[in-house]
Amino acid sequence: MTDRPRITIRYCTGCNWLLRAAWIAQELLQTFGEDLGEVALVPGNGGIYEIAVDGHVIWDRKTDGGFPGPRDVKQRLRDIIAPERDLGHLDR
Predict the structure, then answer these.
(1) What pTM was estimated for this model as a whole?
(2) What is 6-90's CATH number?
(3) Contacts with 20 (C-beta within 8 Å, 6 or more apart), sequence order
(4) Are 64 and 31 in contact (CB under 8 A)?
(5) Is residue 92 pLDDT above 80, yes or no?
(6) Residue 1 pLDDT > 50, yes or no?
Protein backbone atom coordinates (compact mmCIF):
# COMPACT_ATOMS: atom_id res chain seq x y z
CA MET A 1 0.00 0.00 0.00
CA THR A 2 1.27 3.46 -0.84
CA ASP A 3 0.85 6.66 1.08
CA ARG A 4 0.89 8.65 -2.15
CA PRO A 5 -2.40 10.35 -3.09
CA ARG A 6 -5.05 8.59 -5.14
CA ILE A 7 -6.80 10.74 -7.74
CA THR A 8 -10.21 9.75 -9.07
CA ILE A 9 -11.84 11.34 -12.06
CA ARG A 10 -15.53 10.44 -12.30
CA TYR A 11 -17.07 11.19 -15.67
CA CYS A 12 -20.41 10.70 -17.41
CA THR A 13 -20.32 8.00 -20.07
CA GLY A 14 -23.63 9.17 -21.54
CA CYS A 15 -22.12 12.61 -22.12
CA ASN A 16 -19.02 11.11 -23.78
CA TRP A 17 -16.58 12.78 -21.38
CA LEU A 18 -14.05 9.92 -21.32
CA LEU A 19 -11.55 11.75 -23.54
CA ARG A 20 -11.76 14.87 -21.37
CA ALA A 21 -11.17 12.77 -18.24
CA ALA A 22 -8.26 10.90 -19.85
CA TRP A 23 -6.68 14.20 -20.97
CA ILE A 24 -6.76 15.60 -17.42
CA ALA A 25 -5.41 12.29 -16.06
CA GLN A 26 -2.50 12.49 -18.52
CA GLU A 27 -1.79 16.10 -17.54
CA LEU A 28 -1.67 15.19 -13.84
CA LEU A 29 0.59 12.20 -14.45
CA GLN A 30 2.86 14.31 -16.65
CA THR A 31 3.24 17.00 -13.96
CA PHE A 32 3.19 14.99 -10.73
CA GLY A 33 4.46 11.60 -11.95
CA GLU A 34 5.63 9.38 -9.12
CA ASP A 35 4.25 11.77 -6.48
CA LEU A 36 0.86 10.15 -7.21
CA GLY A 37 -0.14 6.67 -6.15
CA GLU A 38 -2.86 6.31 -8.78
CA VAL A 39 -5.05 8.19 -11.19
CA ALA A 40 -8.32 6.32 -11.73
CA LEU A 41 -10.97 7.01 -14.36
CA VAL A 42 -14.37 6.07 -12.97
CA PRO A 43 -17.33 5.88 -15.35
CA GLY A 44 -20.65 7.23 -14.15
CA ASN A 45 -23.79 8.93 -15.39
CA GLY A 46 -26.05 11.87 -14.70
CA GLY A 47 -23.70 14.49 -16.09
CA ILE A 48 -21.01 13.85 -13.49
CA TYR A 49 -17.50 15.22 -13.92
CA GLU A 50 -15.70 15.24 -10.59
CA ILE A 51 -12.05 15.12 -9.60
CA ALA A 52 -11.07 14.01 -6.10
CA VAL A 53 -7.88 13.48 -4.12
CA ASP A 54 -8.18 10.67 -1.60
CA GLY A 55 -11.96 11.15 -1.61
CA HIS A 56 -11.80 14.95 -1.18
CA VAL A 57 -13.45 16.64 -4.18
CA ILE A 58 -11.28 19.34 -5.73
CA TRP A 59 -13.45 19.95 -8.81
CA ASP A 60 -17.12 19.30 -9.47
CA ARG A 61 -18.58 20.37 -12.79
CA LYS A 62 -21.93 21.20 -11.24
CA THR A 63 -20.64 23.29 -8.31
CA ASP A 64 -17.59 24.80 -9.97
CA GLY A 65 -19.46 25.74 -13.12
CA GLY A 66 -18.12 23.72 -15.99
CA PHE A 67 -14.89 21.96 -16.80
CA PRO A 68 -11.48 22.79 -15.43
CA GLY A 69 -8.42 23.41 -17.50
CA PRO A 70 -5.23 21.59 -16.58
CA ARG A 71 -3.92 24.69 -14.80
CA ASP A 72 -6.89 24.79 -12.40
CA VAL A 73 -6.64 21.12 -11.49
CA LYS A 74 -2.86 21.14 -11.15
CA GLN A 75 -2.94 24.14 -8.82
CA ARG A 76 -5.68 22.66 -6.65
CA LEU A 77 -3.89 19.31 -6.48
CA ARG A 78 -0.55 20.94 -5.69
CA ASP A 79 -2.15 23.01 -2.91
CA ILE A 80 -3.18 19.74 -1.23
CA ILE A 81 -0.25 17.40 -1.81
CA ALA A 82 2.75 19.76 -2.05
CA PRO A 83 1.89 23.40 -1.22
CA GLU A 84 5.54 24.42 -1.39
CA ARG A 85 5.96 23.14 -4.95
CA ASP A 86 6.42 25.66 -7.74
CA LEU A 87 4.49 24.83 -10.91
CA GLY A 88 6.60 27.19 -12.99
CA HIS A 89 4.68 29.14 -15.62
CA LEU A 90 1.35 27.83 -14.30
CA ASP A 91 1.83 29.88 -11.14
CA ARG A 92 2.45 33.12 -12.98
Answers:
(1) 0.91
(2) 3.40.30.10
(3) 11, 49, 67
(4) no
(5) no
(6) no
